[in-house]
Amino acid sequence: xxxxxxxxRFFFLSLVLCCAALVRVAIGPVGTDEGVxxxxxxxxxxxxxxxxxxxxxxxxxxxxxxxxxxALQVLMRNPLASPFVLGISSGxxxxxxxxxxxxxxxxxxxxxxxxEAIGAILGAACTLGIVARLGRTTDGEDTTALLLAGVxxxxxFSAGTMLxxxxxxxxxxxxxxxxxxxxxxxxxxxxxxxxxAVVTVLAWIVLARVSKALDVSMLSDDEARSSGVALHxxxxxxxxxxxxxxxxxxxxxxPIGFVGLVGPHIARRLLGPHHGLLVPGSALAGALLxxxxxxxxxxxxxxxxxxxxxxxxxxxxxPAFLWLLRRGSGR
Amino acid sequence: MTDPLLDATQLSMRYGATVxxxxxxxxxxxxxxxxxxxxxGCGKSTLLRALAEVLPAAxxxxxxxxxxxxxxxxxxxxxxxxxxxxxxxxxEFTARAVVGLGRFASTPSTDAVERALHAVGLHGKGDxxxxxxxxGERQRVAxxxxxxQLDGAERPILLLDEPFAGIDPAEVARVVTALRxxxxxxxxxxxxxxxxxxxxxxxxxxxxxxGRVVADGPAANILVPTVLxxxxxxxxxxxxxxxIPSLLPEPAPFR
Lengths: 331, 255
What we know:
Distance between the termini of chain A: 26 Å
Number of strands of chain B: 9
Helix content of chain B: 25-40%
Strand order of the largest sheet of chain B: 5-6-7-3-8-9
Radius of gyration of chain B: 18 Å
Distance between the termini of chain B: 12 Å
Largest sheet of chain B: 6 strands, mixed
Number of helices of chain B: 9
Helix content of chain A: over 70%
Shape of chain B: globular
Mean pLDDT of chain B: 91
Radius of gyration of chain A: 20 Å
Number of helices of chain A: 13
Structural class of chain B: alpha/beta
Strand content of chain B: 25-35%
Oligomer: heterodimer
Order of helices and strands of chain B: EEEHEHEHHHEHEHEEHH
Structural class of chain A: mainly alpha
Number of strands of chain A: 4
């Protein structure tokens, strides 16, 4: 099917995202005489405003992760690549934890989002660079080496983050722990949200402008180069776009797994392989996944508050990853 | 020979301590169909990749000029196309979509895509996913992509690394007709494992051995048992029992 023929599917995806957003705004805990109950209905203006902000923050983080996943999958020429699977989220998390510890030690006067974002981006870029180096062979990328390197580095950075957790004061430790599980702020900070929005939109524009070159880069390197694609410059763009998006998303909401992996796959199945539609499609699918996960987590209260959204995405995304792995190996 | 379409000066390549290609000077003019032959690992693919300017910068030296000038990679893509020995595809595109990718550096053209699919005999399979095609059909899709890339070029240069791998004889004849049409307007250089087929379709032959050109001249004079015996390090002989596809007459060369 041509890209034009896929447009109705694109609008369908947008419509489903709008429905999920409406459900998320309508659903939420309300305090009553018998305790906190889950209520679905039209909320008051104040509550609706807060929930709309929550939906916007979930949609932006999801879109950033979806775009990051797509950029990394094209960069690595591997559909199993994603910020979480390749350990980039953990690396970014370690970067944020370093900034938090430095803040607690008085190196920074206060916790600032930009410090966390820069720590996250540096952590993401370092991890991506090491994984890409370890996964490269003379014949190109070795999928197994790539994934193993990502898993091992991810574990190492997670362990490093846990180590740093013991160095921060008790008050900050709880914050760090819930952030490590992947959490969307209950009351989003508008300045942070605006930064996330600007970075996501800029990355979207960067990827959309090279969408035709991304299509050609699906050929072998020699064919793509001889077709006129400046492959080195394209890959540098993908590297930084994927790393910065993952870094900013992790700085804002912690390492949320599987959205970056599954989002582009949903877009590919619905919209086909052309990046002209895949770029906005991956952003939409990522946003849909995280807004839906945020709505689902409202339903579960295990007595100690709502689940972090990262737990929901991991529980749903893990089986999806295994299915993709099985499908990829032709079984 | 009139003004050269493709000019290579002191082209060489080394991978670490291994020299894949010793310095080579090569000039190809309008209307030439050049076959590159030699044993496995003699440098055929490296020479073609060097001429296509797709080799990694490390270890590479020399210069390639097209139509007497140097071009950016995007501008060069309108004049020169390359098909590697093993074309790859990391996405689920249809054959028509892959052929369309050849128009990246030029104006998109549905007609050019259809002409290219027709030239390689895949006009009825344009909507099939490439992953569902046979190896030979995939090879023809890659050739069609290169033909679409050069559609509209006044004097195209086509570089092909083992273009007939996996293609059945009847389709080889069809593809040769398409390549001869390109060579009539510009130039075609292709590596071939079969010196007999090379002698049938090429005007000129280059014989490589250990990264050096050991013979260069008219295919009828070069691709003979005495020269090939030295090049392959194995006794070669003429045979009348070898069957090759009958080919259409050559089109008139470009004027």
